[in-house]
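Service request form, structural biology core

Requester: graduate student, group of Dr. S.
Request type: structure prediction, single chain
Budget code: on file
Notes: please return the result as structure tokens.

Sequence provided:
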Amino acid sequence: MDVKILKGMLLSLATGDALGVPVEFESRRRLKADPVKDMRAFGTWNQPAGTWSDDTSLTIAAMESIARLGKIDYEDIMENFLRWYERDDFTATGERFDIGNTTYSAIMRFKQNFSPPTKCGLTDEGSNGNGSLMRILPATLYLYGTRGKIAGDELKIIHEFSALTHGHIISLMACGIYSLIAAKLLDGKNISEALALGMNDAKIFYGSDAAFKNFSRLCDENFAALPEDKISSSGYVVHTLEAALWCLLNTDDYKSLALKAVNLGGDTDTTGAVAGGLAGIVYGVDSIPADWLKILKRRDYLETICANFNAVL
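Core staff response, request fulfilled:
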């Protein structure tokens, strides 16, 4: 795989994350009055401009493990997650400042020697936040890079990767669908084609499961035409997946995509990260505004992670 694809993915994900950090939990109405236009400082988490959150931290924690070991090792990945939580490793500024409840519970279960790691994620229906979706791309790109596809066997691994923190079938499906669409983008399809083809594959793989009805809007050929007020940007994993894909379908460049995603309000950093990861595959690192990249924290570190990861593909 071309390392440029990895840099596009990770830097676009981190940039979308960082754009959203200062306005996380802000309402859409408030952001309509004062929209995000560039990198901001302080705000919700009182962080300097360009600071990314747990979305990027957990993504690079997974990437570092895969790059170092040359394989997906669930125990080692969870050890990295624990290092992030307890020691502030894999952070933008040396300070961890955000963690979802379900992710926290899974990391604590792992610390208490709950085994195997793929059973650490909670499996109740109320534990379907977007915490595994936001960090699934390392598994997707590793499997695509080493196997050339995302299909049945690969989806089972995607599910296990999600279940480290989020084990309910809705979270597993969301990660699977996102990975199927990402694979179509890596195949060179445009966003509309990738969505249609990815959802067709998802329907074949998941269609017999009643939980797949939660993703029915993504099967609708008119999904992109939905008005903004029909798109939710909460932390529920289905909402995040829909919001990210809707933003991709309704923009033509990275900057427009990232700003549209963040200005939906709500879980702004994760919508920005999830949309940004796919946008990086489509548009590449050169599409990110240079003034944003200058502000983005630890860019060199992120690029080193990409180079190391690419070496095992």
